[in-house]
Amino acid sequence: MALTVTVLGCGTSMGVPMIGCRCAVCTSRDPRNHRTRPAVHLRTETTALLIDAPPELRLQLIRSQLDTHLDAVLITHTHADHIMGLDDVRGFTLRTNRPIPVYAEASALDDLKRVYRYVFFPYPPGVSTPQIEFREITGVFTIGDITVEPLRVFHGEMPILAFRVGNFAYVTDVSYIPPDTWERLQGLELLILDALRYQPHPTHYNLEQAIEVAQKLGAKRTLFTHMTHDFDYETVNAQLPDGIELAYDGLVARVGTD
Ligand SMILES: [Zn+2]
Ligand SMILES: [Zn+2]
Ligand SMILES: [Zn+2]
What we know:
- The protein is α/β, with parallel strands linked by helices.
- The protein has one domain (about 1-255): 4-Layer Sandwich (Metallo-beta-lactamase, Chain A), CATH 3.60.15.
- The chain contains 7 helices and 14 strands.
- The protein has helices at about 55-65, 80-85, 90-95, 105-115, 180-185, 205-215, 235-240, and strands at about 1-10, 40-45, 50, 70-75, 100-105, 130-135, 140-145, 145-155, 160-165, 170, 190-195, 220-225, 245, 250-255.
- It has a 7-stranded mixed sheet with strand order 6-5-4-3-2-1-14.
- Strand 7 (about 140-145) and strand 8 (about 145-155) form a beta hairpin.
- The longest helix is centred in the last third of the chain and has 11 residues, at about 205-215.
- The protein is globular, with a radius of gyration of 18 Å.
- The N and C termini lie close together (about 5 Å).
- The model has no long low-confidence stretch (mean pLDDT about 95).
């Protein structure tokens, strides 16, 4: 089975360009310096899913022409940059009239049910809300022909999820990878990893830490994500060690999962 991974967004919570900033990256004409909030789209021939639902989800899906089919949404954690686009699944459920399963941990489901409470109100006919069905992640689960392994990572003090699918793993918003998860991140063909900025940060890897982790894990290819306006794509990407690259919005990678 081959998996196609599309980076829908690789920006940090404020996106790049940042409101009010006129730095060289925020005003750059290189589209690879325009970073919407973080998410990836995974698909096989038959199954399509999202990891996270950022505020720009609608535009991201349309831009990458991934707006015709969706089977599920996986949530890493409930910070605004990862969930505030969930209402956009309405674009799919209006056409299919079938709910889309949204997978998250119990604590994240509590947040989602609070934020998206209006979705479950009774409405008069003709009013459309997204049809979503919350499902608790308690272990490995399968969506169509995609098997998802949830992995524990830490975002500062906050336990959140990373996901492994075959030889691909998505590890965003991370400042610590516990040993069990470290073991499950071996033998990867593609790793997408948090690398926020140059300066250290209490809840994210900075560039130096991300490079060290990427080199130790030794995935065949590592892409950095969740990036601020610190990084000019062209400049920073050229300085990275072999096998490590900056992601950019719209990047497509193919991974064998056998
Ligand atoms: Zn984030
Ligand atoms: Zn800037
Ligand atoms: Zn976060």
